[in-house]
């Protein structure tokens, strides 16, 4: 009786090993995320406003890092947010400078 149980277990393990060996070897890839635009307050405390608002050389690096932190692949656009993108969504005193204007980063992938 013990031999019969051992043989059934052995054949089960061999069958499981063979089923894993014949699985397709192609890797699976997650579907890319849709394009999304994030609005970030200029005074977020991280100091990214200087790079992104002025379109400095570091802007693409900072914007891509932000997108990667949000689960996207790359930044497709970045800069100061347009007035119609944030009107009423963030408090802003009258006469605020462009440095206080929210930033926009568009991520894809």
| Averaged pLDDT | 76
Distance between the termini: 58 Å
**Which residues sit in consecutive blocks of at least 5 with pLDDT less than 50?**
none
What coarse outline follows from CA principal-axis ratios? rod-shaped
Query: What's the number of extended β-strand segments?
Result: 3
Sheet/helix structural class: alpha+beta
Number of helices: 4
Oligomeric form: single chain
Helix content: 25-40%
Radius of gyration: 26 Å
Q: What's the story with the biggest beta sheet? A: 3 strands, antiparallel
Order of helices and strands: HEHHEHE
Instruction: Kindly estimate the percentage of residues that lie in beta strands according to DSSP.
Output: 15-25%
- Strand order, largest beta sheet: 1-3-2
